[in-house]
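Readers of this paper often ask what the protein records in our data store actually look like. An entry from our holdings is shown next, in its original layout:
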Amino acid sequence: MADRVRTVKEVDQFIVDLPNDIQNITVALRKIILHSSPKLREEFKWSMPNYTYNGLVCYLQTSKNHVNLGFHKGNKLQDKDMNKLLQGTGKTMRHIRIKDTEDIQPKAFTSLIQEAVSLNEDEAI
């Protein structure tokens, strides 16, 4: 699993209980998130993994057929989303829907996660 110091057992258990294909996607995304920034803290909130730094940054929401890598302030990331991956029309939240491990784009996802961390840094000043 990911870096022991920065992961929580509730998320470990959540992942173990997922179907294999969804589990593989979730594990890969978790790794990308935790490697994107050493500042991010993993938490289990609202029945899913959430990652925080100076507030909410991103989350992993699983379903039967896909995993959403969600951004709490995704509306502020749209201009940084060079690959036009973000979906959603909510007031602030946006997500990237991943149906298969081949859909994972580590560089693009890392870039968006780092931008989301920066947003929280800027707002904390």
Q: What stands out?
A: Residues 107 and 118 are 16 Å apart (CA to CA). The helical segments are 9-16, 20-36, 106-124. Residues 4-124 form a domain with the Aspartate Aminotransferase, domain 1 fold (CATH 3.90.1150.200). The chain has a mean pLDDT of 93.
